[in-house]
Amino acid sequence: MEQEDRVRCQVCGKQKRLAEVVPAAVVREALVRQMRDGRTEWDENGYICAEDLALARASYVEQLVTDEGGELGDLEQEVVASISEGDLIAEDTNETFEQQLSFGERLSDQIAAFGGSWRFISIFGAIIIVWIVANSLLSRFFDPYPFILLNLVLSCVAAMQAPIIMMSQNRQEDKDRLRASHDYQVNLKAELEIRQIQEKLDHLMNQQWQRLASIQEVQVDMLNELVRGGGRDSEG
Ligand SMILES: [Zn+2]
Hints:
The protein is mostly helical. Helices cover 71% and strands 5% of the residues.
């Protein structure tokens, strides 16, 4: 039991205790490929020490992220930071967007919303009808037929409404862009977190293997004792 089994780590070549290594067979394919890179000899049934495995994992994840987009952009860096700090990235984009709107922008949104409603159409239609009827029935009213002042008012309303609607549309686009980049961040984070969970599962598997290995050591010792005991019995 006391003779500690020392095995050689395939990556750094150092002799390690059995508790400090994991068998190459339980390490994920991609990580093995990462560590095999540039190595001629590789034993499928060999061992890898825990430090080398951690190093390989880190460089593997980094490579995954950089492979996707070439370089880490601002969005990806935010995601990586939020993963390392463990905080949430999901947020209400609508709320964030509303908060950074100025008074003018908010006003134009409200005007555009009102201008695009049935309420506006009915109120405006009613005003026009009242205007026309009043000016037709009461002769010498302020805007007699052909209602030139009404024409002017309508043109002004149309002229003001168009830029207000365009402003509001631009803002809608900004909002969509914000939402899209935010969705991308959330997706990227989910993907990376899932990968981390996979790594953790691998780690759990390794731990179980180590427990099994130590149990097996005990069993081998017990077997040895049994064999020795049996030999003595047949001799005596
Ligand atoms: Zn090693």
